[in-house]
Write a structure and sequence with these properties.
The protein is an alpha+beta fold. It is built from 7 helices and 20 strands. It has 2 domains: 203 residues, 2-Layer Sandwich (Antithrombin, Chain I, domain 2), CATH 3.30.497; 171 residues, Alpha-1-antitrypsin, domain 1 (Roll), CATH 2.30.39.10. About 1% of the residues have low confidence.
Length: 406
């Protein structure tokens, strides 16, 4: 992946994160699912719409379509990640050959004009391209819809080392007094947890390593920090825009949110990091036109004018722009998917303790953020905020192998 494109997509993720979870609920979003569509629209736009879209994608409009195609090709080559694009147009809509030729490889279909028929076909495409994680295309169709442009991303990974599931009883905070599906494990790699000092306050980051080229970082800030501040600090840390320090070099005490480091008696010289978090599933539907300026869509939605002469000689304007996304974090691995669509219309025994070693414990026992990051490029594939973890449910049958911890 080109560094310039990765930086541009991560910049959009950072800006979007600033508006995340402002209503107090959990959320998940993926800028890599949206950015290529904005880039393709910028390539075909003119006037103020072209300038606004180019600013949103962070690269000049003439280079946007090529960058979108290269990004989607690179994403589809990441192990465990599927990336797809689709274009559906009315049969009577003339498309500019130059713009069509620059589109990424993907589905090309026709809109019949019958909303029910078209919606069913689009829903089937969304479900198929996300392995069923997203069942419906997030698009509003009406008789004015002339074209639909969509992307789909689906990520599935397994942890190199699974967590131990169990009942989590949390003593204080918004998750207290209810049994949650807790996840825990220990490792000798202290630097799996790091602390970054951002202008808005410190954040603790836990890296959970996947079996492909993608890892998930859990991000915990101070209780008074907003979700946007925590996520933006986490993005800066995982993309190495700001430095972070591993637990092996941090001072004893509480050097970061949710983190405690101390020296304890031990039978050997091995240092340990103990991790505790919760399983979660987060779903979100985003109407991108709620914040049109953020995504460069302010002028493009004015249906009194056409804004995309590079796409068609017919006047076109954005009618709807939405993203549906989901993320699941569990003992064995992580899944995330997003479909983004634009509708474009006309207008044991006691041992001898001979040593004292460093032991670190990090706990995600209150709302926190998560970032799925491509290990090589540092592209943030998905980001989100957890407010409502999964409850613990008693296992069925005789095997209740889940442990309890608090």
């Amino acid at each position: 992946m080109k560094i310039s494109t990765v930086r541009a997509v991560n910049a959009l993720t950072t800006r979007w994160a600033g508006h995340a979870a402002t209503d107090g609920t959990g959320t998940v979003f993926t800028a890599p699912g949206l950015w290529p569509l904005l880039a393709l629209l910028a390539d075909g736009a003119a006037g103020p719409a072209r300038a606004e879209l180019a600013e949103a994608v962070g690269i000049p409009a003439p280079a946007a379509a090529g960058a979108a195609r290269e990004l989607l090709t690179a994403l589809d080559g990441v192990r465990g990640l599927r990336a797809a694009t689709g274009l559906w147009a009315r049969r009577d809509l003339p498309l500019e050959e130059g713009w069509s030729a620059r589109l990424p490889a993907g589905t090309r279909g026709a809109l019949t004009g019958d909303d029910d028929t078209d919606k069913k076909a689009l829903d089937v495409w969304a479900a198929d391209r996300t392995d069923g994680l997203i069942e419906k295309m997030p698009v509003d169709l009406d008789r004015e819809t002339r074209l639909v442009l969509a992307s789909a991303l689906a990520l599935r990974l397994r942890w190199i080392r699974p967590f131990r599931p169990g009942t989590a009883w949390i003593d204080e905070g918004p998750w207290s007094e209810r049994p949650l599906l807790g996840l825990s494990r220990s490792t000798a790699l202290l630097d799996r947890v790091r602390v970054a000092q951002a202008p808005t306050g410190p954040v603790s980051l836990l890296e959970v390593v996947g079996d492909g080229g993608v890892d998930v970082h859990l991000v915990l800030g101070e209780p008074q920090a907003s979700p946007g501040q925590v996520l933006q600090a986490g993005i800066a840390a995982v993309t190495r825009a700001i430095p972070s320090t591993g637990a092996s070099l941090l001072p004893e005490g509480n050097p970061g949110p949710g983190l405690r480091i101390e020296r304890v008696p031990s039978t050997d010289r091995q240092e340990w990091l103990h991790l505790e978090t919760v399983a979660f599933e987060v779903r979100a539907d985003h109407d991108l036109l709620d914040r049109p300026r953020l995504f460069g869509l302010e002028s493009a939605t004015d249906d009194r004018h056409g804004h995309f002469p590079g796409i068609s000689t017919d006047p076109l304007a954005i009618g709807s722009a939405r993203q549906s996304a989901v993320a699941r974090f569990h003992a064995e691995g992580f899944e995330a998917a997003a479909v983004t669509a634009f509708a474009i219309g006309a207008g044991a025994a006691v041992p001898r303790l001979r040593y004292r070693v460093r032991r670190a414990e990090v706990a995600f026992h209150r709302p926190f953020g998560f970032l799925a990051v491509h290990r090589t490029s540092r592209l943030v594939l998905a980001a989100g905020w957890v407010t409502d973890p999964l409850p613990y449910e008693e296992p069925t049958g005789d095997n209740d192998g889940a442990e309890k911890w608090s």
